[in-house]
Amino acid sequence: MSYCVNCGVELDSSLDHCPLCNTPVINPNELKRIADAVPPFPEQRGEVDTVKRRDFTLLIGIILTATSASCLLLNLLVFTGSLWSLFIIGACLLLFIVLLPAITTLHLPMYLSLALDGAGIAFYLYLISFTTADQHWFFALAVPIVGLCTILCEIFAILMKHFRVSYLTTTLYFFVETALLCMGLELLIEHFFTKPMRLTWSAIVLTVCAVISITLLTILSRQRLREAVRRRLHF
Ligand SMILES: [Zn+2]
């Protein structure tokens, strides 16, 4: 028979809390029995070794090379109608370049890996240009657009690395870069189609981005305003 240490009420042996005052019921004999019992789970955790990056790189490389080679052979020997295998070879190469920072043991600087991604995309488009009747679009439109996107990504990476980063600054960079991208795209497309170079649809994007950017700059430059926004948006 046991009694509550707090209120003295008589307790049933199955209770773990006093029904009257909610004091926990602790039986020292029970504690010892639990401590002595063999735990139901193993003491050592069996962990699977992580895959070595070199093995993973090799595996990915072999899969992509095998895919490219088999498609090339199919293209040359069976389905010879068009150069369709260039699409797949280019995609495999691009995938490898994009995955390179994740799979390789080499720690590529971010700028270099972004530049490689841009070059990979340009090379993919170059391969695609062989399947079209005219390659003029590649040099006159694709290369400048890929170059513009790569440069903007590099600038974004530099800003994120060297300046104070918060949600507000990241949003500011994003809108400024979006405005620049849209303006650049419109001008490049007009230049390609030999139209007069002037802003139309990108002017609307530019206006919206300018309003948002000015708002963000005002918030960022006033500490009280910045703190108020930060508290309200919980970051
Ligand atoms: Zn009690």
UniProtKB/TrEMBL annotation:
<keyword id="KW-0472">Membrane</keyword>
<dbReference type="InterPro" id="IPR046283">
    <property type="entry name" value="DUF6320"/>
</dbReference>
<keyword id="KW-1133">Transmembrane helix</keyword>
<feature type="transmembrane region" description="Helical">
    <location>
        <begin position="172"/>
        <end position="193"/>
    </location>
</feature>
<feature type="transmembrane region" description="Helical">
    <location>
        <begin position="110"/>
        <end position="131"/>
    </location>
</feature>
<feature type="transmembrane region" description="Helical">
    <location>
        <begin position="83"/>
        <end position="103"/>
    </location>
</feature>
<feature type="transmembrane region" description="Helical">
    <location>
        <begin position="199"/>
        <end position="220"/>
    </location>
</feature>
<feature type="transmembrane region" description="Helical">
    <location>
        <begin position="137"/>
        <end position="160"/>
    </location>
</feature>
<dbReference type="Pfam" id="PF19845">
    <property type="entry name" value="DUF6320"/>
</dbReference>
<keyword id="KW-0812">Transmembrane</keyword>
<feature type="transmembrane region" description="Helical">
    <location>
        <begin position="56"/>
        <end position="77"/>
    </location>
</feature>
<protein>
    <submittedName>
        <fullName>DUF6320 domain-containing protein</fullName>
    </submittedName>
</protein>
